[in-house]
Amino acid sequence: MKVSVLSFIADQRSKQPPVSSFRVDLTGKTVVVVGANTGLGFEATKHFAGMGAGRIIMACRSQSKGQAAVERLKSEIGYSRAELWLIDLAEFSSVREFADRFERDGGRLDILVENAAMRSFEYTATKDGWDMSLQVNHLSTSLLALLLLPIMIRTAKQHATVPRIVVVSSDMHYFVKFSRDVAEDPEILKTLGGAEYCKNPKNMQDRYELTKLFNVFFVRALNAHIPPSTPLIVSAVDPGFCYSELRRESSGVRVIRDWLMESALAFSSEVGSRRIVWTALAHQEEPDRLRGEYTSSFKIKEVGDLVLSPVGREVERRSWDELVGILGKVDSRVTETVERYLTRV
Fold first, then answer.
1. What residue ranges do the domains of the chain occupy?
2. Which residues are catalytic?
3. pLDDT tens, position by position, 292-309
4. 26 vs 83, 110, 161, 274, CA distance in Å?
5. DSSP summary character for residue 128
6. 20 to 30 Å CA-CA from 27: which of 46, 198, 209, 299?
7. Which InterPro entries match (predicted)?
């Protein structure tokens, strides 16, 4: 599928249904929202709280900003069951510590919203030796999902429910192109996340879009490895073009372009968050309809032509194998999860 400029504009100008039209009673259920202190994450958290979630864990990088968001949630809608748990996706150790805490906690996990992301046009290496954008948006996002997957499967069995993982992607994945050399690279993630590739400014111009493409690859690959009998739904969602702190690193002409586009077309964070919440809650009677799917505009939408092409399918397969290998070295529980809960394709 291709997305034209006209279809993008039409989508941004279309009326977005209110959350009340797909409201679900979340009494007793636990929701984790990553990046919950601001923007889309906070607004999604607010909607979940308004549906009576038994427990909400606001996973944030900053103690002060996260605590302020907890207090804001309480003051705005009177929700007092939110907890602040710290996580920094730029450090694998922080993701591991978050998962360790959840294991010690022993509680249930019904909905995991992986919303945190960054947009940068310059290469910055993390402590783990990866380009920060790729680590935050893809590698650590995938690591967290795989580490919490056993807890979600346990929740499904103990509470006769169908947990969901929602990865926030973007329609920008439709516009990504690979060079032949990159597409055929046997270590594509290592190349894309390494200094040699990233220090070429040209290669960083579509970095955000590229990471959102790999979010789609991850969701599709993970779903393909989850046995159909396992009550766990993983989906990707496009929240639309919204006012966002993602563009805070823009400079020069890009600032003007972003301002003009936001003024003309952007959704508020609250409106964009509705799409995230819909993906986490829709089709309660037939949740399997959302297995491995990409959603946008409150419906299942076909992914980009690159994803569906022979090249894309091969990149998806190889990048999954590489991802599992990389993350298995970060935490052996990833390897154990893949071997115990997932199947070969």
1. 5-341
2. 208
3. 999 999 999 999 999 999
4. 16, 9, 12, 16
5. T
6. 299
7. NAD(P)-bd_dom_sf, SDR_fam
Q: CA 272, 61, 290, 55 torsion: positive or negative?
A: negative
Measured between alpha carbons, how far is residue 96 from residues 6, 33, 100 in Å? Answer: 43, 16, 6
| Residue 235, beta-bridge partner list | 166
Instruction: Find, among 97, 76, 22, the residue nearest to 274 by Cα.
Output: 22
Is residue 20 packed enough to be buried (19+ CB in 10 Å), middle (13-18) or exposed (0-12)?
exposed
Q: Treating both helix axes as pointing N-terminal to C-terminal, what angle do 63-77 and 39-50 enclose, rounded to 10 degrees?
A: 40
Contact at 8 Å (CB) between 300 and 289? Answer: yes
* Topology given in CATH for the domain delimited by 5-341: Rossmann fold (3.40.50)
Helix (H) or strand (E) holding 166: strand 164-168
pLDDT digits over 109-123, tens only?
999 999 988 988 899
Dihedral over Cα of 341, 343, 344, 345: its sign: negative
